[in-house]
Amino acid sequence: MTASPFPNRTLARLRAGEAARCLWLSLGSPALAEIAAEQAPDAIVLDLQHGLWDVATTHVALATAAAAGVTPLARVADKQAASVGQALDAGAAGVIVPLVDTAEEAAAAVAAAHYPPGGARSGGGMRPLRDFPAYLAASRTETLVAVMIETSAGLDNAAAIARTPGIDMLFVGPGDLGLALAGDGPPLETAIAAILAAAREAGVPCGIFTPGPAAARARLEQGFQFVVADDDIHLARAGFAAALSSTSESLSA
Q1: How far is the C-alpha of 20 from the C-alpha of 118, rounded, in Å?
Q2: For a Cys staple, 24 with which of 28, 87, 99, 231, CB 3.0–4.6 Å?
Q3: Whole-structure pTM value
Q4: In 75-123, where does DSSP find H-type helix?
Q5: CA count, 13 A, side-chain hemisphere, 25
Q6: What H or E segment, with its residue span, contains residue 43?
């Protein structure tokens, strides 16, 4: 597959003030990525932090999404520069960087995602090197950098993180944020509203992980611009359960 991840249609939507819906994939299956891309979401996100993806399947799935005209994104394994660069080298058009606590860490994520002189990303990777001059030029304006707010420190520093030059989106991780606040933090929904407000104040789009279409619709109405329409684990579990339930009802009728 020779499809380029650029132009980044999801980034264009966000910059225009529009909403984007993604499908979130964790099971490590390029075949599922192909099926997901056929449904024409705005983006496909590969979860490299908690998912089952390896180097080879990541390359294939990102290329499959790009070939279908779907923005290929990756939630990277951690906030280290090497993880950011490896995901982009594999064909991601942008990264969602987890567990960002400070503006300094946000700036480091931006630097890791961009080549000098505006960043510190190393030049290489099979996909970029196919036509590196063209890739380099496009990457300077088309690479999406999102950082996840999902800790108490991140919540406290959300306003400063949102104002970090080069940040294209704040992304709320409600699961880890809820864990972090369970002790003595504010209620989760209060914290989520505060992050959304910080993003709006800075003029930066805000996304959030949503566990299915009903939650995604509610968050879009709340003002979030990037949501998860559904994820492969939930869809598989719900689909299998529904099929077995339907079969049981037929047998007992």
Answers
A1: 27
A2: 231
A3: 0.95
A4: 81-89, 103-113
A5: 26
A6: strand 43-47
Report the distance separating Cα 71 and Cα 65, nearest Å. 7
Question: What CA–CA distance (Å, rounded) separates 84 from 95?
Answer: 7
Q: Tell me, yes or no, if 234 is annotated catalytic.
A: no
Structure tokens at 114: 């961009």
What is the number of other CB atoms lying within 10 angstroms of the CB of residue 43? 25
Residue 1 pLDDT > 70: no
Between CA 138 and CA 43 the distance in angstroms is 18
Say yes or no: domain 9-252 is CATH 3.20.20.60.
yes
Share of residues in the chain with pLDDT > 90 (%): 93
Asked whether 180 and 150 are in contact (CB, 8 A), the reply is: yes
Mean pLDDT (the chain) is: 96
Amino acid identity of 160?
A
* Calpha distance 206→183 (Å, rounded): 25
The count of residues in the chain is 253
* Contact status, residue 39 vs residue 121, Cβ threshold 8 Å: no
Bond from prior residue into 205 cis (ω within 30 degrees of 0): no
User: Which residues lie below 8 Å from residue 245, measured CB to CB, with a gap of 6+?
Assistant: none
Q: What is the mean pLDDT of residues 79-102?
A: 98
The mean per-residue pLDDT over the stretch 17-32 comes to 98
pLDDT (tens digit per residue) in 194-221? 999 999 999 999 999 999 999 999 999 9
Residues 109/100, Cβ–Cβ less than 8 Å: yes
Residue appearing with tokens 């510190």: 120
The whole-angstrom separation of Cα 250 and Cα 253 is 5
Q: Of 109, 146, 131, whose CA–CA distance to 225 is shortest? A: 146
Nearest CA among 131, 144, 130 for reference residue 42: 144
